[in-house]
Specification:
It is a single chain. The chain is mainly alpha-helical. Helix content is 78%, strand content 0%. The longest helix has 30 residues.
Length: 289
């Protein structure tokens, strides 16, 4: 029973009970792999990136909880996390961090690419830096959007083509704008708690102006994806289905403009479906030009 409870605590620390973060990271990365390799991705590369996404997301969660363990106790949404409740000790969490980082690097070494290795090391370093930035900067979401938005897409392209094309840059920029938008929605959901414990975020800085900024970022995402479609000579179907996102984003804007934490959190949870939708539409563009 003890071992079973301990394993459950470790999985909880890595957020396996909340897989939405995996989907938000996985589908844009898969989209980049298929786009870079024109729809043909080797099973080995595919499996490495799927495993890498799971490991890196887990690593980010553990590092975040190590840094925030004293804050988490004071927040209703996080007070039951394993480090906050001391179900897992700090030493155990640090050992888990080392194991996850080691596994991530071994996965990268399977790709036999120095650039990928350097990018992976950069990702691990940024994962450590991110939880600390919100202590003194209002823009931790800007770093997070690069870490889990743009960087995996760049790594995926380098893994299969050893280059970064203009199309990949556009996809990375679109994903960056999108992730910055939904991370900002998440920040609104945490606004009251962040203000109480002294944590900085983009929501703390902009407050009621943030819903307009979020909508603007989502429009930028759509424009960039339309530009990507033009570069790739995708069919009109691709452009039409991407434009349909405007309807969803405007509906979300109406839900978050009153800055209600519960509404904002529900809107944030919708974005894993956005990730799946864009991935499917991207595959449509790749395979049916």
């Amino acid at each position: 029973m003890y071992i079973k409870n301990k394993i459950s605590s470790y999985l909880c620390l890595m957020r396996f009970h909340q897989p939405i973060g995996i989907w938000l990271l996985l589908y844009p990365t898969l989209g980049a792999l298929f786009l870079a390799d024109h729809g043909f991705v080797s099973k080995k590369v595919l499996y490495i990136f799927i495993a890498g996404v799971i490991i890196m997301r887990s690593l980010g969660c553990v590092i975040n909880d190590i840094c925030d363990r004293k804050f988490d106790i004071a927040v209703w949404r996080t007070k039951n996390r394993p480090l906050a409740t001391k179900e897992i000790s700090l030493i155990e969490a640090i050992l888990l961090t080392i194991i996850l980082a080691t596994v991530a690097l071994f996965l990268v070494l399977e790709l036999h690419n120095l650039t990928i290795l350097l990018l992976a090391i950069l990702g691990i370093i940024l994962s450590i830096i991110y939880p600390l930035i919100k202590r003194f900067s209002y823009f931790p979401q800007i770093l997070l959007a690069f870490l889990f938005g743009a960087l995996p897409i760049i790594m995926a392209s380098v893994a299969v083509t050893h280059t970064i094309s203009l199309s990949i840059i556009i996809l990375a920029m679109a994903t960056y704008a999108w992730q910055l938008s939904y991370d900002s929605i998440y920040a609104i959901a945490d606004l009251k708690d962040d203000q109480c414990i002294g944590i900085k975020s983009i929501a703390v800085l902009y407050k009621n102006k943030l819903p307009n900024i979020i909508l603007g970022l989502q429009v930028i995402m759509i424009i960039l994806l339309q530009f990507l479609g033009e570069l790739q000579n995708f069919s009109l179907d691709f452009h039409f289905f991407i434009l349909l996102l405007l309807l969803l984003f405007y509906k979300q804007y109406r839900q978050i403009k009153h800055m209600n934490p519960q509404s904002c959190f529900k809107v944030f949870q919708q974005h894993h479906k956005v990730a799946i939708y864009v991935f499917v539409v991207l595959l449509l563009g790749i395979y049916y030009k």
